[in-house]
Write a structure and sequence with these properties.
The complex is a heterodimer of chains A (345) and B (199). By secondary structure, chain A is mainly alpha-helical. Chain A has helices at 7-20, 24-73, 82-116, 122-178, 205-232, 237-317, 319-333, 335-344. Chain A has eight helices and no strands. The termini of chain A are far apart. Classes of the chains: A mainly alpha (345), B alpha+beta (199). Chain A: This is t-SNARE. Chain B: It comes from Leucogyrophana mollusca.
Chain lengths: 345, 199
Protein backbone atom coordinates (compact mmCIF):
# COMPACT_ATOMS: atom_id res chain seq x y z
CA UNK A 1 0.00 0.00 0.00
CA UNK A 2 1.63 3.25 -1.01
CA UNK A 3 2.07 6.07 1.39
CA UNK A 4 -0.95 8.28 1.57
CA UNK A 5 -0.74 11.86 2.53
CA UNK A 6 -3.62 12.53 4.89
CA UNK A 7 -2.51 15.73 6.52
CA UNK A 8 -5.29 17.60 4.72
CA UNK A 9 -7.87 15.27 6.20
CA UNK A 10 -6.28 15.73 9.59
CA UNK A 11 -6.45 19.48 9.25
CA UNK A 12 -10.07 19.31 8.17
CA UNK A 13 -10.84 17.20 11.25
CA UNK A 14 -9.12 19.70 13.50
CA UNK A 15 -11.05 22.55 11.92
CA UNK A 16 -14.38 20.81 12.31
CA UNK A 17 -13.69 19.92 15.95
CA UNK A 18 -12.62 23.47 16.65
CA UNK A 19 -15.75 24.84 15.09
CA UNK A 20 -17.92 22.41 17.02
CA UNK A 21 -16.42 23.09 20.42
CA UNK A 22 -15.77 26.81 19.94
CA UNK A 23 -14.54 27.72 23.45
CA UNK A 24 -12.92 31.20 23.26
CA UNK A 25 -9.97 30.77 25.65
CA UNK A 26 -8.95 27.67 23.79
CA UNK A 27 -9.01 29.10 20.32
CA UNK A 28 -5.71 30.85 20.80
CA UNK A 29 -4.14 27.63 22.07
CA UNK A 30 -5.60 25.66 19.23
CA UNK A 31 -4.38 28.24 16.74
CA UNK A 32 -0.93 28.04 18.23
CA UNK A 33 -0.90 24.30 17.99
CA UNK A 34 -2.05 24.42 14.43
CA UNK A 35 0.61 26.98 13.64
CA UNK A 36 3.22 24.82 15.21
CA UNK A 37 2.22 21.80 13.18
CA UNK A 38 2.10 24.00 10.12
CA UNK A 39 5.58 25.27 10.84
CA UNK A 40 6.96 21.80 11.19
CA UNK A 41 4.82 20.76 8.29
CA UNK A 42 7.48 22.13 5.98
CA UNK A 43 10.07 19.63 7.12
CA UNK A 44 7.60 16.81 7.59
CA UNK A 45 5.97 17.18 4.24
CA UNK A 46 9.41 17.10 2.62
CA UNK A 47 9.97 13.69 4.16
CA UNK A 48 6.51 12.46 3.35
CA UNK A 49 6.90 13.70 -0.22
CA UNK A 50 10.07 11.72 -0.67
CA UNK A 51 8.51 8.68 0.99
CA UNK A 52 5.41 8.87 -1.18
CA UNK A 53 7.55 9.16 -4.32
CA UNK A 54 9.45 6.06 -3.31
CA UNK A 55 6.21 4.23 -2.60
CA UNK A 56 4.84 5.10 -6.02
CA UNK A 57 8.02 3.86 -7.66
CA UNK A 58 7.86 0.61 -5.75
CA UNK A 59 4.26 0.03 -6.80
CA UNK A 60 5.03 0.72 -10.46
CA UNK A 61 8.01 -1.64 -10.29
CA UNK A 62 5.77 -4.30 -8.79
CA UNK A 63 3.36 -3.91 -11.69
CA UNK A 64 6.21 -4.27 -14.21
CA UNK A 65 7.47 -7.29 -12.32
CA UNK A 66 4.02 -8.84 -12.60
CA UNK A 67 4.12 -8.36 -16.37
CA UNK A 68 7.58 -9.89 -16.53
CA UNK A 69 6.37 -12.87 -14.51
CA UNK A 70 3.55 -13.37 -17.00
CA UNK A 71 5.99 -13.28 -19.91
CA UNK A 72 8.45 -15.58 -18.22
CA UNK A 73 5.82 -18.17 -17.44
CA UNK A 74 5.13 -18.86 -21.08
CA UNK A 75 6.57 -22.21 -22.00
CA UNK A 76 5.99 -22.14 -25.73
CA UNK A 77 8.76 -23.31 -27.94
CA UNK A 78 8.59 -20.80 -30.72
CA UNK A 79 6.64 -17.85 -29.49
CA UNK A 80 9.27 -16.65 -27.05
CA UNK A 81 9.88 -12.91 -26.98
CA UNK A 82 13.39 -12.59 -25.65
CA UNK A 83 13.80 -8.95 -26.67
CA UNK A 84 10.84 -7.79 -24.64
CA UNK A 85 11.82 -9.89 -21.68
CA UNK A 86 15.40 -8.65 -21.63
CA UNK A 87 14.24 -5.05 -22.02
CA UNK A 88 11.78 -5.42 -19.20
CA UNK A 89 14.41 -7.08 -17.03
CA UNK A 90 16.80 -4.25 -17.69
CA UNK A 91 14.17 -1.61 -16.89
CA UNK A 92 13.17 -3.36 -13.67
CA UNK A 93 16.79 -3.69 -12.62
CA UNK A 94 17.36 -0.01 -13.15
CA UNK A 95 14.19 0.84 -11.27
CA UNK A 96 15.23 -1.23 -8.32
CA UNK A 97 18.65 0.40 -8.29
CA UNK A 98 17.04 3.83 -8.44
CA UNK A 99 14.64 3.04 -5.62
CA UNK A 100 17.56 1.80 -3.58
CA UNK A 101 19.34 5.08 -4.08
CA UNK A 102 16.22 7.03 -3.18
CA UNK A 103 15.76 5.07 0.03
CA UNK A 104 19.40 5.66 0.93
CA UNK A 105 18.93 9.36 0.32
CA UNK A 106 15.78 9.33 2.45
CA UNK A 107 17.63 7.62 5.25
CA UNK A 108 20.46 10.13 5.17
CA UNK A 109 17.89 12.92 5.11
CA UNK A 110 16.21 11.47 8.18
CA UNK A 111 19.54 11.25 9.96
CA UNK A 112 20.28 14.83 8.97
CA UNK A 113 16.95 15.98 10.38
CA UNK A 114 17.65 14.09 13.58
CA UNK A 115 21.12 15.61 13.85
CA UNK A 116 19.79 19.10 13.22
CA UNK A 117 16.94 19.38 15.68
CA UNK A 118 17.00 16.61 18.25
CA UNK A 119 13.72 17.51 19.89
CA UNK A 120 13.36 15.98 23.31
CA UNK A 121 9.64 16.43 23.31
CA UNK A 122 7.55 13.31 23.05
CA UNK A 123 6.11 14.66 19.83
CA UNK A 124 9.57 14.91 18.27
CA UNK A 125 10.41 11.39 19.36
CA UNK A 126 7.21 10.13 17.81
CA UNK A 127 8.07 11.88 14.61
CA UNK A 128 11.52 10.30 14.61
CA UNK A 129 10.08 6.90 15.28
CA UNK A 130 7.50 7.39 12.57
CA UNK A 131 10.16 8.38 10.03
CA UNK A 132 12.30 5.44 11.03
CA UNK A 133 9.36 3.08 10.69
CA UNK A 134 8.52 4.42 7.26
CA UNK A 135 12.09 3.94 6.08
CA UNK A 136 12.07 0.38 7.42
CA UNK A 137 8.82 -0.38 5.67
CA UNK A 138 10.06 0.97 2.36
CA UNK A 139 13.22 -1.04 2.63
CA UNK A 140 11.32 -4.23 3.39
CA UNK A 141 8.99 -3.60 0.45
CA UNK A 142 11.98 -3.14 -1.82
CA UNK A 143 13.48 -6.33 -0.47
CA UNK A 144 10.33 -8.33 -1.21
CA UNK A 145 10.18 -6.83 -4.69
CA UNK A 146 13.77 -7.81 -5.45
CA UNK A 147 13.13 -11.31 -4.05
CA UNK A 148 10.20 -11.80 -6.39
CA UNK A 149 12.32 -10.39 -9.24
CA UNK A 150 14.96 -12.99 -8.53
CA UNK A 151 12.31 -15.73 -8.49
CA UNK A 152 10.95 -14.59 -11.82
CA UNK A 153 14.47 -14.63 -13.30
CA UNK A 154 15.01 -18.15 -12.03
CA UNK A 155 11.74 -19.30 -13.57
CA UNK A 156 12.77 -17.63 -16.78
CA UNK A 157 16.18 -19.37 -16.95
CA UNK A 158 14.57 -22.69 -16.17
CA UNK A 159 12.05 -22.28 -18.96
CA UNK A 160 14.78 -21.18 -21.33
CA UNK A 161 16.81 -24.25 -20.50
CA UNK A 162 13.81 -26.51 -21.03
CA UNK A 163 12.97 -24.98 -24.36
CA UNK A 164 16.63 -25.22 -25.39
CA UNK A 165 16.63 -28.91 -24.45
CA UNK A 166 13.54 -29.44 -26.55
CA UNK A 167 14.93 -27.62 -29.55
CA UNK A 168 18.15 -29.54 -29.17
CA UNK A 169 16.15 -32.76 -29.09
CA UNK A 170 14.54 -31.91 -32.38
CA UNK A 171 17.76 -30.66 -33.91
CA UNK A 172 19.69 -33.58 -32.46
CA UNK A 173 17.50 -36.11 -34.24
CA UNK A 174 17.84 -34.32 -37.58
CA UNK A 175 21.54 -33.88 -37.02
CA UNK A 176 22.19 -37.54 -36.30
CA UNK A 177 20.14 -38.49 -39.33
CA UNK A 178 21.89 -36.25 -41.80
CA UNK A 179 25.30 -35.96 -40.20
CA UNK A 180 28.22 -38.10 -41.31
CA UNK A 181 31.50 -37.36 -39.67
CA UNK A 182 34.07 -36.93 -42.38
CA UNK A 183 37.35 -38.57 -41.48
CA UNK A 184 38.99 -35.26 -42.14
CA UNK A 185 41.09 -34.57 -39.11
CA UNK A 186 40.62 -30.84 -39.21
CA UNK A 187 36.98 -30.97 -38.17
CA UNK A 188 36.03 -31.02 -34.55
CA UNK A 189 36.23 -34.16 -32.54
CA UNK A 190 33.04 -34.46 -30.60
CA UNK A 191 34.36 -35.21 -27.12
CA UNK A 192 33.08 -32.52 -24.92
CA UNK A 193 32.38 -33.89 -21.48
CA UNK A 194 33.38 -31.24 -19.00
CA UNK A 195 35.75 -33.29 -16.91
CA UNK A 196 36.88 -34.87 -20.12
CA UNK A 197 37.46 -38.22 -18.50
CA UNK A 198 34.19 -39.87 -19.41
CA UNK A 199 33.46 -40.56 -15.81
CA UNK A 200 30.15 -38.77 -15.83
CA UNK A 201 27.38 -39.71 -13.54
CA UNK A 202 29.83 -41.16 -11.10
CA UNK A 203 28.60 -39.46 -8.03
CA UNK A 204 26.80 -36.35 -9.19
CA UNK A 205 25.42 -37.14 -12.56
CA UNK A 206 23.13 -34.15 -12.34
CA UNK A 207 25.26 -31.14 -12.96
CA UNK A 208 27.70 -32.77 -15.28
CA UNK A 209 25.08 -34.60 -17.31
CA UNK A 210 22.98 -31.53 -17.83
CA UNK A 211 25.98 -29.48 -18.66
CA UNK A 212 26.96 -31.96 -21.31
CA UNK A 213 23.77 -32.16 -23.32
CA UNK A 214 23.36 -28.58 -24.53
CA UNK A 215 27.04 -28.39 -25.32
CA UNK A 216 26.87 -31.34 -27.64
CA UNK A 217 23.79 -29.82 -29.12
CA UNK A 218 25.64 -26.62 -29.93
CA UNK A 219 28.54 -28.37 -31.54
CA UNK A 220 26.43 -30.87 -33.45
CA UNK A 221 24.09 -28.19 -34.75
CA UNK A 222 26.99 -26.27 -36.10
CA UNK A 223 28.57 -29.40 -37.51
CA UNK A 224 25.40 -30.14 -39.41
CA UNK A 225 25.53 -26.74 -41.08
CA UNK A 226 29.18 -26.91 -41.82
CA UNK A 227 29.03 -30.55 -42.89
CA UNK A 228 26.23 -29.84 -45.30
CA UNK A 229 27.86 -26.82 -46.76
CA UNK A 230 31.24 -28.41 -46.64
CA UNK A 231 29.96 -31.29 -48.70
CA UNK A 232 28.22 -28.94 -51.08
CA UNK A 233 31.08 -26.59 -51.77
CA UNK A 234 34.53 -27.72 -50.81
CA UNK A 235 34.37 -26.10 -47.36
CA UNK A 236 36.63 -23.15 -47.08
CA UNK A 237 37.97 -21.09 -44.30
CA UNK A 238 34.89 -19.27 -43.02
CA UNK A 239 33.33 -22.49 -41.76
CA UNK A 240 36.51 -23.61 -40.13
CA UNK A 241 36.70 -20.24 -38.51
CA UNK A 242 33.21 -20.70 -37.16
CA UNK A 243 34.18 -24.08 -35.86
CA UNK A 244 37.23 -22.62 -34.23
CA UNK A 245 35.19 -19.96 -32.56
CA UNK A 246 32.79 -22.64 -31.49
CA UNK A 247 35.67 -24.63 -30.05
CA UNK A 248 36.98 -21.57 -28.26
CA UNK A 249 33.53 -21.12 -26.88
CA UNK A 250 33.22 -24.74 -25.96
CA UNK A 251 36.55 -24.66 -24.13
CA UNK A 252 35.33 -21.78 -22.07
CA UNK A 253 31.96 -23.43 -21.70
CA UNK A 254 33.54 -26.63 -20.55
CA UNK A 255 35.56 -24.74 -17.99
CA UNK A 256 32.49 -23.00 -16.72
CA UNK A 257 30.59 -26.28 -16.58
CA UNK A 258 33.41 -27.87 -14.66
CA UNK A 259 33.47 -25.03 -12.19
CA UNK A 260 29.69 -25.12 -11.91
CA UNK A 261 29.84 -28.79 -11.09
CA UNK A 262 32.41 -28.05 -8.41
CA UNK A 263 30.12 -25.38 -7.05
CA UNK A 264 27.17 -27.74 -6.98
CA UNK A 265 29.30 -30.38 -5.30
CA UNK A 266 30.28 -27.92 -2.63
CA UNK A 267 26.65 -26.94 -2.15
CA UNK A 268 25.75 -30.61 -1.81
CA UNK A 269 28.47 -31.05 0.74
CA UNK A 270 27.07 -28.12 2.67
CA UNK A 271 23.66 -29.74 2.65
CA UNK A 272 25.09 -33.03 3.79
CA UNK A 273 26.80 -31.29 6.67
CA UNK A 274 23.58 -29.60 7.68
CA UNK A 275 21.74 -32.91 7.58
CA UNK A 276 24.47 -34.47 9.66
CA UNK A 277 24.19 -31.72 12.23
CA UNK A 278 20.41 -32.18 12.32
CA UNK A 279 20.70 -35.87 12.91
CA UNK A 280 23.22 -35.45 15.68
CA UNK A 281 21.02 -32.82 17.29
CA UNK A 282 18.07 -35.21 17.22
CA UNK A 283 20.17 -37.88 18.75
CA UNK A 284 21.26 -35.55 21.51
CA UNK A 285 17.68 -35.54 22.76
CA UNK A 286 17.66 -39.33 22.81
CA UNK A 287 20.91 -39.32 24.73
CA UNK A 288 19.42 -36.98 27.29
CA UNK A 289 16.50 -39.32 27.77
CA UNK A 290 18.85 -42.21 28.29
CA UNK A 291 20.76 -40.15 30.83
CA UNK A 292 17.63 -39.28 32.77
CA UNK A 293 16.53 -42.89 32.73
CA UNK A 294 19.85 -44.11 34.02
CA UNK A 295 19.76 -41.64 36.87
CA UNK A 296 16.26 -42.81 37.73
CA UNK A 297 17.40 -46.40 37.69
CA UNK A 298 20.32 -45.59 39.97
CA UNK A 299 18.13 -43.78 42.48
CA UNK A 300 15.47 -46.49 42.40
CA UNK A 301 17.92 -49.24 42.97
CA UNK A 302 19.59 -47.27 45.74
CA UNK A 303 16.26 -46.70 47.45
CA UNK A 304 15.34 -50.33 47.13
CA UNK A 305 18.65 -51.30 48.67
CA UNK A 306 17.97 -48.95 51.59
CA UNK A 307 14.59 -50.52 52.16
CA UNK A 308 16.06 -53.96 52.09
CA UNK A 309 18.74 -52.94 54.55
CA UNK A 310 16.10 -51.49 56.85
CA UNK A 311 14.13 -54.67 56.58
CA UNK A 312 17.18 -56.71 57.31
CA UNK A 313 18.02 -54.52 60.30
CA UNK A 314 14.51 -54.79 61.66
CA UNK A 315 14.51 -58.53 61.15
CA UNK A 316 17.82 -59.04 62.88
CA UNK A 317 16.88 -56.75 65.79
CA UNK A 318 13.51 -58.37 66.24
CA UNK A 319 14.96 -61.75 67.03
CA UNK A 320 13.83 -61.84 70.60
CA UNK A 321 10.32 -61.02 69.38
CA UNK A 322 10.72 -64.10 67.21
CA UNK A 323 11.38 -66.12 70.34
CA UNK A 324 8.12 -64.84 71.73
CA UNK A 325 6.39 -65.87 68.52
CA UNK A 326 7.82 -69.35 68.74
CA UNK A 327 6.89 -69.58 72.36
CA UNK A 328 3.29 -68.80 71.54
CA UNK A 329 3.36 -71.37 68.79
CA UNK A 330 4.67 -74.05 71.09
CA UNK A 331 2.00 -73.16 73.61
CA UNK A 332 -0.67 -73.61 70.97
CA UNK A 333 0.74 -76.76 69.36
CA UNK A 334 0.96 -78.75 72.50
CA UNK A 335 -2.05 -77.47 74.34
CA UNK A 336 -3.10 -79.99 76.96
CA UNK A 337 0.03 -80.42 79.03
CA UNK A 338 1.09 -76.81 79.00
CA UNK A 339 -2.38 -75.50 79.55
CA UNK A 340 -2.69 -77.70 82.56
CA UNK A 341 0.73 -76.56 83.70
CA UNK A 342 -0.18 -72.94 83.36
CA UNK A 343 -3.56 -73.36 85.00
CA UNK A 344 -2.03 -75.09 87.85
CA UNK A 345 0.70 -72.47 88.21
CA UNK B 1 46.14 -41.28 -20.94
CA UNK B 2 49.54 -39.98 -21.80
CA UNK B 3 51.23 -36.90 -23.03
CA UNK B 4 53.59 -37.63 -25.86
CA UNK B 5 55.05 -34.19 -26.31
CA UNK B 6 54.66 -30.58 -25.32
CA UNK B 7 56.17 -27.76 -27.32
CA UNK B 8 56.23 -24.02 -27.44
CA UNK B 9 56.62 -22.50 -30.89
CA UNK B 10 57.05 -19.10 -32.36
CA UNK B 11 54.18 -18.77 -34.79
CA UNK B 12 54.20 -15.63 -36.82
CA UNK B 13 51.16 -15.33 -39.05
CA UNK B 14 53.30 -15.45 -42.15
CA UNK B 15 53.45 -19.18 -41.92
CA UNK B 16 56.85 -20.49 -40.93
CA UNK B 17 56.95 -21.55 -37.33
CA UNK B 18 60.00 -22.26 -35.26
CA UNK B 19 60.18 -24.58 -32.30
CA UNK B 20 61.36 -22.67 -29.26
CA UNK B 21 61.18 -25.35 -26.63
CA UNK B 22 59.95 -28.88 -26.63
CA UNK B 23 59.86 -31.87 -24.36
CA UNK B 24 58.57 -35.31 -25.10
CA UNK B 25 57.93 -38.52 -23.28
CA UNK B 26 58.35 -41.40 -25.69
CA UNK B 27 58.83 -44.05 -23.06
CA UNK B 28 55.85 -45.99 -24.30
CA UNK B 29 57.51 -46.66 -27.63
CA UNK B 30 60.19 -49.21 -28.21
CA UNK B 31 63.68 -47.89 -28.50
CA UNK B 32 63.93 -48.18 -32.24
CA UNK B 33 60.63 -46.48 -32.92
CA UNK B 34 61.47 -43.46 -30.90
CA UNK B 35 63.47 -41.72 -33.59
CA UNK B 36 60.72 -41.90 -36.19
CA UNK B 37 58.04 -41.04 -33.70
CA UNK B 38 59.98 -37.97 -32.64
CA UNK B 39 60.34 -36.86 -36.24
CA UNK B 40 56.68 -37.39 -36.87
CA UNK B 41 55.81 -35.43 -33.78
CA UNK B 42 57.93 -32.50 -34.85
CA UNK B 43 56.37 -32.46 -38.30
CA UNK B 44 52.87 -32.83 -36.91
CA UNK B 45 53.52 -30.05 -34.42
CA UNK B 46 54.78 -27.58 -36.96
CA UNK B 47 52.05 -28.30 -39.47
CA UNK B 48 49.20 -27.95 -37.04
CA UNK B 49 50.58 -24.79 -35.50
CA UNK B 50 51.02 -23.23 -38.90
CA UNK B 51 47.41 -23.99 -39.71
CA UNK B 52 46.00 -22.52 -36.52
CA UNK B 53 45.09 -18.87 -36.75
CA UNK B 54 46.17 -16.55 -34.00
CA UNK B 55 44.11 -16.41 -30.86
CA UNK B 56 42.47 -19.78 -31.55
CA UNK B 57 42.41 -23.12 -29.90
CA UNK B 58 42.19 -26.25 -31.97
CA UNK B 59 42.16 -29.99 -31.50
CA UNK B 60 43.35 -32.29 -34.26
CA UNK B 61 43.01 -36.05 -34.42
CA UNK B 62 45.47 -38.15 -36.33
CA UNK B 63 45.50 -41.95 -36.09
CA UNK B 64 46.60 -42.60 -32.58
CA UNK B 65 47.41 -39.05 -31.59
CA UNK B 66 45.45 -36.00 -30.67
CA UNK B 67 47.06 -32.61 -30.77
CA UNK B 68 45.68 -29.70 -28.81
CA UNK B 69 47.09 -26.43 -29.95
CA UNK B 70 46.60 -22.93 -28.64
CA UNK B 71 47.98 -20.15 -30.75
CA UNK B 72 48.09 -17.22 -28.42
CA UNK B 73 49.56 -14.70 -30.78
CA UNK B 74 49.92 -11.51 -28.89
CA UNK B 75 53.14 -9.57 -28.84
CA UNK B 76 55.39 -12.58 -28.77
CA UNK B 77 53.39 -14.65 -31.26
CA UNK B 78 53.73 -17.78 -29.24
CA UNK B 79 51.82 -20.99 -29.68
CA UNK B 80 51.82 -24.08 -27.55
CA UNK B 81 50.89 -27.55 -28.67
CA UNK B 82 50.48 -30.77 -26.78
CA UNK B 83 50.30 -34.18 -28.43
CA UNK B 84 48.49 -36.81 -26.42
CA UNK B 85 46.52 -39.96 -26.89
CA UNK B 86 42.79 -39.90 -27.41
CA UNK B 87 41.84 -40.36 -23.80
CA UNK B 88 43.52 -37.31 -22.43
CA UNK B 89 40.84 -34.90 -21.21
CA UNK B 90 40.50 -31.86 -23.41
CA UNK B 91 39.90 -29.08 -20.97
CA UNK B 92 42.89 -29.66 -18.71
CA UNK B 93 45.01 -29.95 -21.86
CA UNK B 94 44.09 -26.43 -22.83
CA UNK B 95 44.61 -25.14 -19.31
CA UNK B 96 48.05 -26.70 -19.39
CA UNK B 97 48.80 -24.98 -22.69
CA UNK B 98 47.78 -21.61 -21.31
CA UNK B 99 49.87 -22.17 -18.23
CA UNK B 100 52.93 -23.19 -20.20
CA UNK B 101 52.62 -20.16 -22.44
CA UNK B 102 52.33 -17.78 -19.54
CA UNK B 103 55.29 -19.36 -17.83
CA UNK B 104 57.36 -19.30 -20.98
CA UNK B 105 56.53 -15.70 -21.77
CA UNK B 106 57.44 -14.72 -18.24
CA UNK B 107 60.73 -16.57 -18.11
CA UNK B 108 62.20 -16.32 -21.56
CA UNK B 109 62.93 -12.87 -22.95
CA UNK B 110 61.66 -12.10 -26.40
CA UNK B 111 65.10 -11.36 -27.72
CA UNK B 112 66.13 -14.98 -27.66
CA UNK B 113 63.22 -16.02 -29.84
CA UNK B 114 65.32 -15.70 -32.96
CA UNK B 115 67.87 -18.12 -31.59
CA UNK B 116 65.96 -21.19 -30.54
CA UNK B 117 68.90 -23.24 -29.45
CA UNK B 118 69.85 -20.73 -26.80
CA UNK B 119 66.53 -20.94 -25.02
CA UNK B 120 66.60 -22.98 -21.89
CA UNK B 121 63.20 -23.71 -20.41
CA UNK B 122 63.56 -26.82 -18.29
CA UNK B 123 60.21 -26.33 -16.67
CA UNK B 124 58.64 -27.75 -19.76
CA UNK B 125 59.96 -31.16 -18.78
CA UNK B 126 58.41 -30.78 -15.36
CA UNK B 127 55.11 -29.91 -16.92
CA UNK B 128 55.13 -33.01 -19.07
CA UNK B 129 55.95 -35.18 -16.11
CA UNK B 130 53.42 -33.58 -13.81
CA UNK B 131 50.59 -33.59 -16.25
CA UNK B 132 50.90 -37.22 -17.17
CA UNK B 133 48.21 -37.63 -14.58
CA UNK B 134 45.92 -34.71 -15.30
CA UNK B 135 43.61 -35.52 -12.46
CA UNK B 136 46.20 -34.60 -9.93
CA UNK B 137 47.88 -31.81 -11.76
CA UNK B 138 44.93 -29.79 -13.01
CA UNK B 139 43.56 -27.68 -10.21
CA UNK B 140 39.92 -28.00 -11.10
CA UNK B 141 40.07 -31.75 -11.49
CA UNK B 142 41.98 -32.12 -8.28
CA UNK B 143 39.47 -30.07 -6.38
CA UNK B 144 36.62 -32.05 -7.89
CA UNK B 145 38.32 -35.30 -6.96
CA UNK B 146 38.91 -34.19 -3.39
CA UNK B 147 35.33 -33.03 -3.14
CA UNK B 148 34.12 -36.39 -4.36
CA UNK B 149 36.27 -38.17 -1.81
CA UNK B 150 34.94 -35.90 0.90
CA UNK B 151 31.43 -36.68 -0.22
CA UNK B 152 32.11 -40.39 0.06
CA UNK B 153 33.50 -39.91 3.55
CA UNK B 154 30.46 -37.89 4.50
CA UNK B 155 28.10 -40.52 3.17
CA UNK B 156 29.85 -43.11 5.31
CA UNK B 157 29.65 -40.76 8.27
CA UNK B 158 25.95 -40.31 7.81
CA UNK B 159 25.48 -44.06 7.62
CA UNK B 160 27.36 -44.54 10.85
CA UNK B 161 25.35 -41.76 12.44
CA UNK B 162 22.19 -43.59 11.40
CA UNK B 163 23.47 -46.76 13.01
CA UNK B 164 24.31 -44.77 16.10
CA UNK B 165 20.77 -43.52 16.07
CA UNK B 166 19.45 -47.06 15.96
CA UNK B 167 21.67 -48.11 18.84
CA UNK B 168 20.62 -45.10 20.82
CA UNK B 169 16.99 -46.00 20.27
CA UNK B 170 17.77 -49.47 21.47
CA UNK B 171 19.44 -48.05 24.55
CA UNK B 172 16.53 -45.80 25.25
CA UNK B 173 14.12 -48.69 25.18
CA UNK B 174 16.25 -50.77 27.44
CA UNK B 175 16.87 -48.00 29.89
CA UNK B 176 13.15 -47.34 29.97
CA UNK B 177 12.44 -50.96 30.76
CA UNK B 178 15.17 -51.03 33.38
CA UNK B 179 13.80 -47.91 34.96
CA UNK B 180 10.31 -49.39 35.24
CA UNK B 181 11.68 -52.60 36.66
CA UNK B 182 13.84 -50.82 39.19
CA UNK B 183 10.83 -48.77 40.26
CA UNK B 184 8.86 -51.99 40.80
CA UNK B 185 11.80 -53.36 42.74
CA UNK B 186 11.84 -50.27 44.96
CA UNK B 187 8.11 -50.43 45.51
CA UNK B 188 8.21 -54.10 46.43
CA UNK B 189 11.05 -53.51 48.84
CA UNK B 190 9.16 -50.65 50.42
CA UNK B 191 6.03 -52.79 50.67
CA UNK B 192 8.01 -55.43 52.46
CA UNK B 193 8.90 -52.94 55.14
CA UNK B 194 5.45 -51.52 55.61
CA UNK B 195 3.30 -54.64 55.43
CA UNK B 196 5.08 -56.85 57.96
CA UNK B 197 5.28 -54.48 60.90
CA UNK B 198 2.98 -56.72 62.88
CA UNK B 199 5.69 -57.62 65.24
Amino acid sequence: MPIQDRTNEFRACVESIRNRSAVPPRTAEAKQRLLQSHGKGGAKSEFSRMASAIGKDISSTTIKLGKLAQLAKRKTLFDDRPVEISELTFIIKQDIAGINRQIAALQSYVKQCNAQGSSKSSEGKQIDEHNHNIVMMLQSKLATTSMSFKDVLEVRTQNMKESKDRTEQFMFSTASAAHQTPPNSLLLNGRHDPMGDGSLGRLNGNGKGKGRAPQNGDVLALDLDSAEEGNAQNGGNPFMQMQLVEQQDSYIQSRSTAIESIESTIAELGQIFTQLANMVAEQRETVQRIDADTIDIASNVGGAQRELLKYYASISSNRWLMLKVFGVLIVFTSPPQFLVFILVS
Amino acid sequence: MKIYSLSVLLAPPSGSSAVLSTSSDLSSFSFYQRGSVAEFLTFFTKTVVERTPQGQRQSVEENAYTAHVYNRGGAEQLAAIIVTDHEYPVRPAFSLLTKVLDDFAAKVPQSSFSNPSSISFPEIENYVKKYQDPRQADAIMRVQQELDETKIVLHKTIESVLQRGEKLDNLVERSNALSTQSKMFYKTAKKQNSCCVIM
